[in-house]
Amino acid sequence: MIDVKNLSKSFGDHLVLDNISEHIFPGEKVVIIGPSGSGKSTFLRCLNLLETPTGGSITFQGTEITDPKVKIDQIRQQMGMVFQHFNLFPNMTIRKNITLAPVRTGLMKQEEADQTAKTLLQRVGLEDKAEAYPNQLSGGQKQRIAIVRALAMKPKVMLFDEPTSALDPEMVGEVLDVMKELAREGMTMVVVTHEMGFAREVGSRVLFMDGGHIIEQNEPVEFFAHPKSERLKSFLEKVL
Amino acid sequence: MFQSFVNWMDLIGPRLYRAFIEGDRWKLYLQGLGTTLELTVIALIFGVLLGLIVAVVRSAHDQQRIGRRNPVLGILNALCQIYTTVIRGTPMLVQLFIWTFVIFPSQRNKVLVAFIGLGVNSGAYVAEIIRGGLMSVDAGQSEAGRSLGLNYFDTMRFIIIPQAFKAILPSLGNEFITLFKDTSLAQAIGGAEMLYYASTIGGRTFDYMPPLLGIAAMYLSVVIVFTWLQGKLERRLRESDRR
The domain containing residue B89 runs over which residues? Predict the structure, then answer.
């Protein structure tokens, strides 16, 4: 589904991603872990070109999106993204937050988008917040809305950039629950996270990144039970 | 005490009469005030439109992805930069003289020339104000918009500009006040605004003090009223934050 070939990214002289090749298959839930500064967020942000790679190519469903001629807006419409800091639009109601993109990109008419928003909000138990503004909500609620907002575009893949890192501990659960449900429905997901429990439970594959490389990857049980590289062993000792 | 007041009124009364009442001269002041306000408002609208275009071009240029720079945008950006640099780096009065005597020497309607001169001048300042406002909006907002597949202009229009507006408003109010007072420079090119009438009347009556103090008071009152309105609007906008 997403094919990454020899991806490199540097900020000035600083090489953040060093020649990464990876393939993400439909329906997979790929969880990326690693210490901060390892390049995992940059890798994720390269997938929808929020960061422009300095080398290599990314192909999404047969389209090479790193080609400058590709209409990136159309590609992004098929890739949902959830951010660490939610990034809801504070100047709009929740309903408008959710319906803006589907309506403006011509995916839906306003009534249809409103209906979709209503259904999605019911799914995450926030249907009564449709006319509220983002700053009236808690962090956990905001992040659930952010997920819903991305889902309203009917994406083929969802990218999560540390979705629970900015949350109070007691709110992490409600967001993870939504993500787990999404995983059960078969959504293709790429998740950068520090939630090892989530990685173990939901991930179909776990990648460990450090220093701009994917050091090790495996299915979650084996990954956590028998880490092979020294780097991963010491990382897991510290975080588990 | 009372006698001295009467004496003073005896002295000043005829001067006030000549400056404001004789020959219905107060109408001229009001006419001048009308032109001044017209100049301010139209120049500001012109300036805001021009400034918005310049600000959007410049921030669009700065936010381009590396390796995908659009050459047309590059040229536009350079033009915008030259514009803001030249306009902000030269005195307003010099600019007005250049518009009047170099660019439109045969234009008889000096108020029209003043519209252009003031509008172009204010555009450069407003551009920087708006650009600052656009930059003050968290980068995550535009990332969120773009990640949903919205194009650059929709992201600006629905997400960034409405949020930037609140940050821009106080500086835009200051720009309005500056512009309002700077319209008096139009007098130097023969634009019939408040100062023009005041100095004409001063010349005709051989007495400059009453008309000049009079229009100073008029400028001051308008600025005070406007500042009050601005404060009110800002308070209302802040209230919507506390929703």
Answer: 39-167
Q: What is the pLDDT of residues B168-191, one digit of tens each?
A: 988 999 999 999 999 999 999 988
Distance from the A125 Cα atom to the nearest Cα atom in chain B, whole angstroms: 22
B209 domain-assigned: no
List of chain A residues with pLDDT < 70: none
Query: From CA A140, how far away is CA B140, in angstroms rounded?
Result: 18
Global pTM?
0.81
CB contact B70 to A (< 8 Å): no
HSE, side-chain direction, 13 A CA sphere, residue B61: 18
Question: Residue B31 falls within a domain, yes or no?
Answer: no
> Is any Cβ of chain B less than 8 angstroms from the Cβ of A204?
no
Output the domain CATH number for residue B137: 1.10.3720.10
Query: Amino acid identity of A147?
Result: I
Q: How is residue B59 written in tokens?
A: 């921030």
* Chain B contact present for A9, CB below 8 A: no
CB contact under 8 A, A100 and B148: yes
Contact map slice: B 181-220 vs A, CB within 8 A? none
User: Is B151 in Cβ contact with A89 (below 8 Å)?
Assistant: no
Query: What is the rounded distance in angstroms from the CA atom of residue B237 to the CA atom of residue B220?
Result: 26
